Amino acid sequence: MEPPKVQQPGEGGLNVTLTIRLLMHGKEVGSIIGKKGETVKKMREEVSASGARINISEGNCPERIVTITGPTDAIFKAFAMIAYKFEEDIINSMSNSPATSKPPVTLRLVVPASQCGSLIGKGGSKIKEMRESTGAQVQVAGDMLPNSTERAVTISGAPEAIIQCVKQICVVMLESPPKGATIPYRPKPASTPIIFSGGQAYTIQGQYAIPHPDLTKLHQLAMQQTPFNPLGQTTPAFPAGLDASNQASTHELTIPNDLIGCIIGRQGTKINEIRQMSGAQIKIANAMEGSSERQITITGTPANISLAQYLINARFRDVAAMWNDPSSMTTS
C-alpha cells in the first residue's frame, strides 16, 4: 500500500487516493480475469468511472499482484466486486461437492512492514478490535515476503465483513504512513524443472513431462564427450555452427553479484547440478572489492559449454524476469 495522496476537499470531505496491492494465486487471478478477459474488463469499466484502476502483474508466476488505485469509494467498490466474485466461485465449486458448510472468502493484502505495528496495535489491541467489529479473521504474517520490505495481511470471512475490515485497515494506513523506503514484493516466476531420462531431456509443465529436443541434443553431445559416455551410445549430429572437435575451450560470463546466489544455489547444489548435467568445469571468481559483478569461467568441449550456458541462462532468466531486467547479464 503506497502513501496516500490527499487532494482538495470535496462534497464528501477529503478525497483520498489510495493504492492497495493484493497477492493472488494463479487460479484466483484467472477468476478475476475471466473468459477472454471479460470479468476484469467489466470490473474496470465499473470502477473507472469513479477514477479507479485495476492492474494485474505480468509474468509466468504462481502468484500475481493485483493493484487497485483510486479514490477510497472506488477502491472499496472494486474490492467488493472481487470479494463477491470469489464467493460466487466458492458457491459454484460446492455444487459438485458433498461439503455442507461454505468456506470463507480469503484475500491477502500486501502491506509495508513499517505499517504492520500500527495495524496490530499495542498488545494486539487494534487487530483484535477489527476482528470483533467486522467479524472477519485478520492475520498479519510474521515474516516479510521474499526480497521485499512488505508483509502479507490475510483477511477471511463473508464479503461484507471483508469489505468493512479493509475500510478499517485503510484508516490505520492513512493515520500511520510507511516509514522509510518500501521495497515492493515481486512474485518469482515459476521455474521449469528439467529432468534427463533414457538419454532424453524433458521440461516439467504441470503434471506432464514435455520432451525438449534441443536440450536433448546438447545433453547427448555433452555426455558423448565426457568420461561418462554410456556404452553403446551412438554419435548424434552436431547442430549447425557447433564445433565437433573434442578440444577443450573456455567461455566466460559476467553476472551481477545479486544474482550469483541463484546460480550457486543453497550450499552449491545448483552449480553442482549444472556441472554434472553439462560435464563442463565451472569456476566462479571471488567477489572483487568495489565490483558489482562476478566472473564465471566455463571450460570444456563446445557441447559441454553450450549445455552449461543453457542451464545457467535457464536459472538466470527466472530471476531476471522477477526484476524485469533481462539485459543485466553480459557475455564475453
SSE topology string:
EEHHEEHEHHEEHEEEHEHHEEHE
* Coarse structural class: alpha+beta
Mean pLDDT: 77
Q: What general outline do the C-alpha atoms trace?
A: elongated
Helix content: 25-40%
Weakly predicted, low-confidence segments: 2-14, 225-245, 319-332
Largest sheet: 7 strands, antiparallel
Distance between the termini: 42 Å
What is the overall number of helices? 10
Count the E strands. Answer: 14
The value of Rg in angstroms is: 26 Å
Q: How big a fraction of the residues is strand?
A: 15-25%
Keywords:
single chain; 332 residues; alpha+beta; 7-stranded antiparallel beta sheet; 4-stranded antiparallel beta sheet; 10 helices; elongated; disordered N terminus
Q: How would you describe the overall organization of this protein?
A:
With 332 residues, the protein is of the alpha+beta class. The protein is built from ten helices and 14 strands. The strands form three sheets. Strands 1, 2, 3, 4, 5, 6 and 7 form a seven-stranded antiparallel beta sheet that branches. A four-stranded antiparallel beta sheet has the order 12-13-11-14. Strands 8-9-10 form a three-stranded antiparallel beta sheet. Helix 2 (38-48) runs antiparallel to helix 3 and helix 7 (213-224) crosses helix 10 (302-322). The longest helix has 23 residues, at 72-94. The radius of gyration is 26 Å and the shape is elongated. Mean pLDDT is 77; it is low at 2-14, 225-245 and 319-332.
